[in-house]
Amino acid sequence: MTFETILFYVLALAGIVSALLVITRRNPMHAALFLIVNFVALAGIYLTLHAQFVAITQVLVYAGAIMVLVLFVIMLLNLQNEQDLFEKRSWRSYSGPILSLLLLALLLRTVAFVSGGSFDRISPESERIGTVANIGQQLFTAFVFPFEMASLLLLAAMVGAVILAKKRFP
Amino acid sequence: MPDIIFQSTKHFWPEITLALTFIAAMIFEFATKKRTTGTGILVLLGLAAALVQLPSAPSEPVSIFGGMYAIDPFSTFFKYVIIVTGMVVVLFSFQSQELKKESGHTGEYYCFIAAVTFGMVLMTGSSNLVMIYLSIELVSITSYILAGFSKSLRRSSEAALKYVIFGALSSGIMLYGMSLIFGLTGTLDLSGIRTALASGHAVTTGWSFAALMAAIVLMLAGFGYKVSVVPFHFWTPDVYEGAPITITAFLAVASKAAVFAVMIRFFYVAFFDNMLASTGVYSSFRNVDWSMILAVLSVLTMTLGNFVAIWQDNLKRMLAYSSIAHAGYMLMGVVVMSNFGLSAIMLYFVMYFFMNLGAFYVVMVIADKIGSENIDDYRGFGKRAPIISVGLSIFLISLTGLPPTAGFVGKLFLFSSVMASQFIWLAIVGVLNSVVSLYYYARVLKNMYLREAPDGDESPIVFSKVTSAVVILFIIPNILLCFFYQPVLTFAQRSIAILLPGL
Amino acid sequence: MDVLDIAIALIKIVVMFVVVLLTVAELVYTERKISAWIQNRVGPNRVGWLGLLQPYADVVKLLLKEDIVPAAANRFIHTLAPVISIGVAFSTLAVIPIAGPTITLFGRTVHMVIADVNVGILYVLALTSMGVYGLTLSGWASNNKYSLLGGLRSAAQMISYELSMGLSLIGVIMITGSLQLTDIVHHQHGWMWNLVLQPVGFITFLVASFAETNRAPFDLPEAEPELVGGYHTEYSSFKFALFFLAEYANMITSSAVITTLYLGGWQVPYLETFGLSDGWMVLVQILAFMLKVAFLLFFFQWVRWSVPRFRYDQLMNLGWKVMLPLAIANIVLTGALLLFL
Hints:
The complex is a heterotrimer of chains A (170), B (503) and C (341).
Chain A: H1 3-24, H2 28-48, H3 52-77, H4 83-87, H5 91-114, H6 126-129, H7 132-140, H8 144-165
Chain B: H1 2-9, H2 13-32, H3 38-53, E1 62-64, E2 69-71, H4 73-95, H5 97-102, H6 106-125, H7 129-147, H8 154-185, H9 190-198, H10 206-227, H11 235-242, H12 245-271, E3 272-273, E4 283-284, H13 290-309, H14 315-336, H15 339-370, H16 381-384, H17 386-400, H18 406-420, H19 424-449, H20 465-483, H21 486-494
Antiparallel strand pairs in B: 1-2, 3-4
Helix pairs in contact in B: 2-3, 2-6, 3-4, 3-6, 4-6, 4-12, 4-15, 6-7, 6-12, 7-8, 7-12, 8-10, 8-11, 9-12, 10-12, 11-12, 11-14, 12-14, 12-15, 13-14, 13-19, 14-15, 14-18, 14-19, 15-17, 15-18, 15-20, 15-21, 17-19, 17-20, 18-19, 18-20
Chain C: H1 3-38, H2 54-64, H3 75-91, E1 103-105, E2 108-110, H4 120-141, H5 145-176, H6 181-187, H7 194-197, H8 199-212, H9 224-227, H10 237-262, H11 278-304, H12 312-340
Antiparallel strand pairs in C: 1-2
Helix pairs in contact in C: 1-10, 1-11, 2-10, 3-4, 3-10, 4-5, 5-8, 5-12, 8-10, 8-12, 10-11
């Protein structure tokens, strides 16, 4: 057991437990908080995979910005516990877990396919791929076209958000 | 890499023009800050500028930006449909009373038409999963905003909200599909996916096969949502009813064209083997029987669309269900996946453009006059507004697919392409559906010509000369194309060349 | 990574922790002294020589008070919130380099930074963005309308100013070509501090730092006249002390980050011409670093007692309509200069 392996298992456990708590807590605030824990645990796992940039972005964007807005909305709406959602036990409440398990199987198969069936080692390539320098390089060479299109998309979304949010027209 | 980018831009000028139009219109609107139609005219000019550059597109398929984007006759055809629709919608919007009354920001409205046109054009050529996702999102997000543009109308805001919720869900589902495909093939490039599948690098047995199937179904959900194929159609009636009519028309024609283009490219490039191209019918890799899934979806879509349309009292809503049904018809062309089927879809889009835009235009001008889209309020219209009524009748007959209208030719070619590929039962279902659709279209005609106005009011409703002229302009192609469809057909047949790797 | 490495890392952490804690204590004292000086009063002068031991008396007082949690509060989150605040404030310091050369300790080369992460700047930003949870959650968990308003304000304020903060940093990154804080400091050799190269970026970053630390004139989350105490209205005893501690620790962290990014970090111009040994260099550089931080801390307090608080809409206008465009203009300008010079 190397230090990294122990770290991985701790983070993985934290991630799984927090993810389960997200979907079982009835208090929306608690669920949101466990989602943050989940994001941070995921960021830690990215770090063990040498993907520093993705890890930091995960914390910065998801845990730091988006979840603040989620909390903001929960606070403003003053949601009560979602009791009534849990009282109905229809086929829907059983199909969810089954579908999730199926998806898990598919994902495992897909990952196994890419990694050639071995889960126990980190590709030596990862040290090179995950760096900020390499991501920047890719973004401005091979993916420069999608990058520019994404900026146009964000521009349109931004203007649209302002228009929709404006109360009265002048 | 910079060389590739600079070389690529020379094929990319129509798109660049559209993007510049969007930005220029926004700056213009910001600088003048007047509720004038100046921005609209600017956008119109920009769209026209993009349109005149289309004929100089290379006649052979070209891949640009390192395989991210494809320029080929197939996408150019759809670009024509989309840009012309955009121009027509801008012209309609100049006349729309609803936009003037219910929303102040008409300048931004035109900016967004430029943006959404740009997104749709981008969709037609996207040949990489990242680009497909980005262009679909660009179209979706701008459409959400446009659907909610009549902000003082409650139904418009409701439409936008419903659109956003369904849209976000479906794009999430599609991303799941894309990630599975990426995992199975190790590439985001459509031609790369094709190579991976063809070389057998991606094992297509057992769990991998299941994963691939799941991925395709998830992708289909994303595409199906955008063209309102049946299990994913729930947003369509509400959004079409709530959005400004001009936008409804735009969504019904251009948005569908763009998604059909990208969907056909996705299936054709990634999953179909071109070895059998000599017979004009393509076979999919490793007996993945997509055509059966698509056929079932197509039948469900047209049947539900047509049967639910019978019960509608609001003409806009009825046209929404009719457009669902039409998506089902057009899906038949994808089912057969042959050269014949593809050219039939393209021909159908031209016909659909004329009949649908005409119908929506009439609904718009009538709603502006009498403030209602209810079919019962159309009673006695045949006497009170003859030109408009004749126009609407022809458009509806064309939508049904009866001769002597453009819709007849469109349906004829679609159904015969299906028959040619031994899907006879599918063609029969299509014909039966057309019969059903006659019932609800005829109900509008009955109200207009055979019923008296409720209060015996027979005073003529006067429409402006421009309105009548526009209606007549739309009637002419609807009739003419029934007899002189040959040039369009030839053009469509010449435009089926899709960019494939190693060709 | 053996026991000795871990021990050295632990020593670094403990030293940093103790120094910051002591500084926080004395910061409370200087704050009171400076405010007294600005307002022409005497300030604390009874406990110890010149009142220097006053903060310790305050701490004892706070610790001896009763810890009150409102009956309807969410106990767990109510306790968690101050912990988040303080934890974030301290962990940011881990990536700040305080001296250039290495020294040798027990036969090991020791770098004068706890963790030299190669995405250092992003690490700082990420932790700053986590800091908002402390205030927001305390506001929500207290189940008090004033607290909630304070919490909501802090969330809105921090998200708004984080943007201009991140964008003003990009100028520095463009000049340096690295996200590593040690590289950034090395790059500011001699007088080529980023303050000189990036004056606009420095101003936007400084203002954003004030907003991120919730210091006046951006202390809207606790605005006493309108919100009683804002997010910490319902806190008492040790938890209140933690919030207090966090505010000052955040000031120190921000000052250290500003020093590192814009004031040349530990750089002392012309120091290498004296031909000092590495040990002395380290000492001088640490002193220089601390002096720069001390000056910024004084500046923070100076501003607090001189400038009135913003109104909420003014705050948002400043953030979105002034700071953000300025930060973006700075990026464009920097890019143009780098391209053409």
